[in-house]
Design brief:
rod-shaped
Length: 119
């Protein structure tokens, strides 16, 4: 009978050493999982940093391109503005000449009419 009691008592009572091993294995597994998660996060952060740097470089290139385009447009606008000013000046001069010619025609017609009456 003594042997049966010893076997039952050994099987029913957990071994402290195996409990510690299970706890250690569980902690070790959690550490490995945490390391894997950290490595994954590092890779993701590195990828985001690279993409962010590329995006900033593309944006800077686009900004420079837009500035150059704007300078070209401003130069063309200035040139067009000068041409329009010249055209307006010529137009005003021509309008003045037309007005003077009309006045001369009116004067000539009135003189012709006057002369025709006299004759």
């Amino acid at each position: 009978m003594g042997n049966i009691l010893k076997k039952i008592s050994k099987n029913n009572i957990p071994n402290n050493y195996s409990r510690k091993n299970l706890l250690y294995d569980n902690i070790q597994q959690e550490l490995e999982d945490s390391k894997d998660t950290i490595i994954g996060l590092k890779d993701t952060v590195f990828s985001i940093e690279n993409n962010y740097a590329k995006l900033l470089q593309q944006l800077n290139t686009e900004i420079v391109s837009v500035k150059n385009e704007m300078n070209t447009i401003l130069t063309n606008n200035s040139s067009f503005s000068n041409n329009i000013t010249k055209i307006n000046k010529i137009n005003n001069e021509l309008e003045n000449e037309i007005h003077e010619l009309r006045n001369r025609i009116v004067i000539l017609e009135s003189n012709d009419q006057f002369h025709s009456i006299i004759e």
